[in-house]
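Weekly puzzle thread! Below is a chain. First person to post its structure in token form gets bragging rights.
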Amino acid sequence: MFLETKRLILRPWEEADAEECYKYASDPQVGPMAGWPAHTSVENSRQVIREVLRAPETYAIVLKETGLPIGSIGLHRNDLAKQDDEAELGYWLGAPYWGRGLVPEAAREVLRHAFEDLNLERVWCGYYDGNEKSRRVQEKLGFRYQWTSEAVPVPQLGETRKGHVNRMTRAEWQALQNADITYTVGGQKFNYRVCAIILSGQKILAMRDERSPYYYLPGGRVRMGETAERAILRELEEELGVAPRILRPLWLNQGFFTEDVDHLRYHELCVYFLIDAAGTGLTEKGEKFTLHEGQHIHDFEWLPFARLKEEYFYPVFLKEAIFHLPKHFTLRTEIE
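Winning reply:
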């Protein structure tokens, strides 16, 4: 079984991966935090691949840009996951690749595989006290806290530790797939959104879709349990097929307006992020280009700043503000 994400291939481990495995698993920052000893040699890594990592539903995390494994992720049966319809999610990643969102990216695909392909009902996940990186990964993914144990055996290291246990059910996973933070009361609607300011010289990337008569910015609604930063990167991946870098947040805008398509009165909070387009290939697509997101057709165009005043474009405040972006995160209010 091979699984794929934007930046990763998840595939079975091979003995030929032993040198790359040792490169990262020999790091004392990696294994001991997860409860297993650092690998001592390439041959030790080869043995672990044969005896542990070749287990069913265990995958090497392979970076597409290099074709080499940089970590491991899998679904396991153990003391937490004893039933046929459940598993425990386990993972580790080489230290040079920490902080790039690669484990959450891999884990989201493994969770999809668990609930859609394997028809599991529950996936468990745990971490030892002090492993803040693992805790944050599980929070990002939407796992829910279950319990804490004061003396969990760690047999490979011959010690006990304080451990925390989280869980996700199939119903919770399904709810997360469409849990946008939005609701309607009468003729009014609340939205929590994120938008991307993507610049090329004196031009900004704007878009329209099949139902919109006006230009707007790439982005979308934040989901329950999702950070604004994660939301904008997810939306750009879905709409544009890119994984860019956030330069900085610009504004939190409180917008009060009547939407021109559904005619509802909106109360909208939107975080605007300045995005680095370098290395995404967006500027090479031409002045105008079209992309598909599921059944939706998105038309994109690089609009010169000077044209914004003439165009049917939202948000209105950006027609002036684009010429003087704030150096610090700024709260602003727009009332139409």
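Puzzle host: Confirmed. Bonus trivia for everyone else. The longest strand covers residues 245-258.
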